[in-house]
């Protein structure tokens, strides 16, 4: 908590100069009146210092800067779309913004319109959620699964009850936390949490994003910036959803929709049909004279396509960009030979497969003649087991 003299200094100088301050100027001015305040804000940026003294300075400029930074993050082609989804600025005023000018000017125009409507952090947080809903691949999402206690029935409480309970539990445990909700079209709710400390207001740039689907045990969470508050977060989730336990699944990706498709077993329905390219068409220029070889090759191609279809199906695979295998096995070799023959400790190594679209890449290996069919089950089980992190140990 800041002392009385510190708040007096902030009240005297903060309001007069809050609009145009830099961290160095702020520290210098504070040091002339109260060295204690200077030490408190010297390490902060101007906006973080403003957040710390929000009750004295006011939130207007902090909200304006947050909206400006959010607009700067949005791809140019998506700015108009996201602002219309936000629906805070009237359409008639949106038409006055020249979206073809540089993004910095666009952001300033948006901020000016928001100032006229006295936007609060509540509206700014919703804009941030819409940005992350539209540009989901900016964060790595991890899947968590909640479970009921033995014999407990499935809870049928609605989403509004879940939101209310979640917010009450988390705010009861943590004083300075800002929670925002936004429903999506697929019956899910997006939750945005800005974390503070016992002595500072929530930092809107240190946030956690969560996606929860009603009546399901799964929750998708971006990286939690404040690890020490994870127990309180888990407690709020389990209480709101009436669950007994929460556990992290070994499944992560940049592509939230693909994670949903995997855990909800929807990838054979929601993804468009994928047609395997015939190897016969690809190699049509290669002339093989011997009819026996032609027959043998055709049978092998048919077998490969059949096995590939049985393994992966005829649809586009969920988009996963990596799979990691951690090996903890004993080194297999002749007991009489080799420097590792008498080693008791497990042989440890890490193998990682990466691709912009890993499952589609694996699906194409056998038809392309790069690998034998069928592929190892360690590679093909990713969508079925809902895992892309594996630890392989001795049986």
UniProtKB/TrEMBL annotation:
A GO-annotated cellular component: nucleoplasm
| GO terms, biological process | CENP-A containing chromatin assembly; chromosome segregation
Q: What's the name of the protein?
A: Centromere protein N isoform X1
Keywords, in A-Z order: Centromere, Chromosome, Nucleus
* Family, similarity comment: Belongs to the CENP-N/CHL4 family.
Q: Where in the cell is it found?
A: Chromosome, Centromere; Nucleus
């Amino acid at each position: 908590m800041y002392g009385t003299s510190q708040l007096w200094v902030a009240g005297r100088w903060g309001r007069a100069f809050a609009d145009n301050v830099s961290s160095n100027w702020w520290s210098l001015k504070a040091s002339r009146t109260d060295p204690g305040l200077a030490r408190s804000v010297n390490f902060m940026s101007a906006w973080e210092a403003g957040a710390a003294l929000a009750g004295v300075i006011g939130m207007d400029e902090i909200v304006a800067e947050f909206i400006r930074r959010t607009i700067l993050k949005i791809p140019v082609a998506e700015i108009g779309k996201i602002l219309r989804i936000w629906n805070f600025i009237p359409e008639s005023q949106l038409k006055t913004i020249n979206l073809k000018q540089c993004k910095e000017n666009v952001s300033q125009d948006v901020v000016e319109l928001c100032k006229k409507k006295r936007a609060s952090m509540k509206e700014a947080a919703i804009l941030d959620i819409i940005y992350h809903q539209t540009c989901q691949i900016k964060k790595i999402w991890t899947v968590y699964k909640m479970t009921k206690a033995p014999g407990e029935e499935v809870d049928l409480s609605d989403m509004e009850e879940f939101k209310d309970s979640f917010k009450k539990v988390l705010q009861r445990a943590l004083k300075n936390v800002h929670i925002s909700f936004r429903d999506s079209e697929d019956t899910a709710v997006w939750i945005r949490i800005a974390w503070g400390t016992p002595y500072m207001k929530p930092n809107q740039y240190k946030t956690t994003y969560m996606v929860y689907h009603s009546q399901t045990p799964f929750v998708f969470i971006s990286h939690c910036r404040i690890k020490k508050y994870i127990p309180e977060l888990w407690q709020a989730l389990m209480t709101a959803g009436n669950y007994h336990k929460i556990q992290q699944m070994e499944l992560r990706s940049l592509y939230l929709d693909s994670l949903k498709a995997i855990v909800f077993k929807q990838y054979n329905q929601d993804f468009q049909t994928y047609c395997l390219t015939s190897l016969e068409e690809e190699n049509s220029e290669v002339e093989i004279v011997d009819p026996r070889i032609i027959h043998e090759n055709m049978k092998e191609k048919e077998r490969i396509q059949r096995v590939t279809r049985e393994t992966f199906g005829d649809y586009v695979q969920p988009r996963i960009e990596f799979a990691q295998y951690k090996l903890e096995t004993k080194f297999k070799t002749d007991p009489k030979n080799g420097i590792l023959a008498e080693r008791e400790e497990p042989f440890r190594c890490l193998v990682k497969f990466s691709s912009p679209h890993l499952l589609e890449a694996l699906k194409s290996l056998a038809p392309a003649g790069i690998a034998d069919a069928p592929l190892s089950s360690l590679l093909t089980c990713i969508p079925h087991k809902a895992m892309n992190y594996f630890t392989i140990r001795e049986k």
